[in-house]
């Protein structure tokens, strides 16, 4: 515990600050300011801690978080600062899975609830919903014991005609043994999205089993015998891989395939792109042109567009040509996961529901071995393995929700919350790099699943404008990927910089209102029932009396019970009137209100004008 | 002149109309004195397109064999294409459109011919008179007076006949001050902040010249607005450099020695041709769908449009801040005081004054701070983003103002009585309209043209309940606070309702908006019903109790 610590405003150019006390707990860093407002930061969320050179007011400490929160403390004594710095370094770098928050987090669930929570998402059920197994696709037990591919799940769906030797042969010809398997089956088109890793083709190697495997996939589609093979890498990268004995499919060796590069950059490019984006958006006194050119130079939106363009290409193959598509990149767990999951999301409205989105993440990301632990740096590890691949997926989905405001059951808060927990290590879902590792860690016994908690709070994550039977054409989303449709996701990268957000949220308002509408509908039912009951009393005199006294006597109004009931209406009315989001549920803006309703002494340095005051 | 002389081919059949995101339609094209009319011949779903000639910004023609194609680019940024069979017809039509869309004389414009098809409930020309404004003011302070010094537009040609000035300054002094200010635009009251009695005034630059001329009356006039011992702020919308250069041409700025109680702040808001170029570049970038991401972002940046937005908003916030937070009076001016000055004074009022965020209040603001204040609409809005004329007085000054209002509206979506459509409507009418409101460059010209007698006011049309309902913001809840917008680049956005309006299908967004309105409507209905039922139940209970007491 350190007192008299100052929390600086990130974008203020005049060192405006809050003074308070800093606490370190086993799991969190806590700052309580003089007006008793609390800022909690989970140690696992800390991406970097930096000590800046000593200043006259104390020792500055900058903490960068994985959820893009940046806090800037000034600790009065250097020794304290040094201690905090060292403790945070230790606390934020965990060496072993067992030390992660998830293993100590206890949400007061009993064992059966815990088990039930983990059973909430059942992928076998999901494949059944898609319509497999069926005449062409079957469940393979080849990987039952993770013998063929360690990073795949146990249960895999493959074409019926792909025998075990073909599977084994194909897996030996694929990087990390990740042979082609089913990711999504489109019932109406009978076409499939399959995924795998790159072939070990080098400059000329071929593998008959792998060729058979691809043939089996194309044959499993009765509506189109041609299939697409999408290599999601830029062509140059794929060619470079040939020198290392890897590479891409030679169209001549495979029958009936159409090969296509789509050019999504690798994890290292994405990592440095995000780094550049954050550097720009974190600048003080940023000008519009610096922001736009920084946005351009970071390439971030270009990458998001590339990911979405790839998904659109995939969807066209399936929806227009009824052709199956095999997607891969290098190892088939980053770009492949992005493209397969976004493709499915565009094709199938189920994945646009709250539950469906959880299923989609479980299927294409968790079960198929997207390396969450490495990519999100859950353990102290190789910084070159870190990459915002999943963040890009969420951002692509957010872009779609902006274009199709009524097509999604969930809202932005849902995406942000998932992003929060991918990094928080509070729940077991995203720990580890693949299913095998998760089983070894006994996550299902020792930790809790995130999904039941999100479902419990789903009111918060519901899109009030969602229209499940919008129109049949909307089963398929056809997004417009012209550049101007992609916007900077302010609520992700500046989630905690409240002064940048709109001061009144239409979204929250509508959400509250549609919640209130449900309550009102019930109230009406209840009231009508009451009135009916009363009218039902066969007291003719009373009836008459009732008609006569059109003017109720005010004396008798000693708060009849039904007037008390009007109370709950008031807070919601308030919500409508909410100025600058003073609604408590909407704590994102609550800080702001306090800031502006307080008549602070006007110390305004006019050089900076309002830019200083408001950002 | 007869319009018929200009129309060589009044009608062409088998014309095909192409619009982005719509199927091509075949139909008949007619030209009248003021409109281009296209009507499809399909019986089932007859469609008509009426386009004001004055809305046409530029026109291009192309020929493939005998099939001519005319591409019409409008001031509201829409682009349509007409395929006209027959070389001669096409040429005739193109030259007619060209002539009709560039008529020289104001009195030939459509507003002089337009006869309203609606009943006039309130004459918009008389809706916002300075007297009413002054009446409101005098109910809170008696330090100001209404001066009729400009009755015949004799003192300042770009000011209205009556202006509000400090009570202690007589007309004689005003005449002297007028001599000292560019275009005779002496300082007048723009806004009175009821909360603390501080004021915002506006004027043009003082004519100090290189030898530092001074005018005692000018000093006295603006000092009259200061409280004893208090300082005021002069916001010069030009950079210090530009202001200094202006001295060589006889202009200049208030020198500290002569205005010791005032602190001068320079803000750099760009002028005419730079703004016009910015608009042209922005629209070009928005219209090209083939740009990759890098190119789009660099074009958006190169247009500088959002930089202008940020600069204008920042200057307006600064003015508002001086008044509300610093408790100081403010004088705003640039060079002429007819462009950037008005942007700043009107936006500051949106920030400070809840009344300006209502529909009527906003209309009154546009009338006071733009029309009566002498923003030269006719010059500035003569051409829009597709113009190739290099006349230097065209500039999207008013559009930038509307864009800034939209930015604030987006940040405070519940604090405005009007919606985005209202702002878009004002943009359209400022550039081409059947109403006379935006004709002329100032009140003087409007009165010479006899606009109030000869044309219909936009406000007469808008302020009828049928029209108003389209422009009402369902989320509006009066907010009496000062609203401080964020001017961080991350908080500013491209105004899609204007710039991407014709470039992308908006079906899904429109439907979502409709759904939102339905939820709000439904909520109101339910609340009313619940309250009615409760009352009914309460009455019944009261009756019961009375029954018992009996």
Automatic annotation (TrEMBL), chain A:
Question: Which GO MF term does the entry hold, naming one?
Answer: phosphatidylinositol-3-phosphate phosphatase activity
The regions listed as transmembrane in this protein's record are none
Ordered alphabetically, the record's keywords are: Coiled coil, Hydrolase, Lipid metabolism
Any Pfam family: Myotub-related
Tell me which residues this entry annotates as catalytic.
329
Record domain Myotubularin phosphatase: where: 117-493
| InterPro entries attached to this UniProt entry | Myotubularin, Myotubularin-like_Pase_dom, PH-GRAM_MTMR6-9, PH-like_dom_sf, Prot-tyrosine_phosphatase-like, Tyr_Pase_AS, Tyr_Pase_cat
Which family is this protein grouped under? Belongs to the protein-tyrosine phosphatase family. Non-receptor class myotubularin subfamily.
Name the record gives this protein: MTMR6 protein
Species, as recorded: Ciconia maguari
The gene that this protein is the product of is: Mtmr6
TrEMBL record, chain B:
Ranges for domain Myotubularin phosphatase: 124-499
Q: Which GO terms describe its biological process?
A: negative regulation of autophagy; phosphatidylinositol dephosphorylation
**Which family does the record assign?**
Belongs to the protein-tyrosine phosphatase family. Non-receptor class myotubularin subfamily.
Query: What Gene Ontology cellular component terms go with this record?
Result: cytosol; endoplasmic reticulum; perinuclear region of cytoplasm; ruffle membrane
Name by which UniProt lists this protein: Myotubularin-related protein 9
One molecular function GO term is:
protein phosphatase binding
Q: Which PROSITE patterns match?
A: PPASE_MYOTUBULARIN (PS51339)
Tell me the membrane topology, using the record's own terms: Peripheral membrane protein
Entry keyword annotation includes Ligase = no
Q: Does the keyword Hydrolase apply?
A: no
What are the leading ranks of the lineage? Eukaryota, Metazoa, Chordata, Craniata, Vertebrata
- SUPFAM superfamilies given in the database record: (Phosphotyrosine protein) phosphatases II (SSF52799), PH domain-like (SSF50729)
Indicate where this protein resides in the cell.
Cell projection, Ruffle membrane; Cytoplasm, Perinuclear region; Endoplasmic reticulum
Keywords tagged on the record: Acetylation, Cell membrane, Cell projection, Coiled coil, Cytoplasm, Endoplasmic reticulum, Membrane
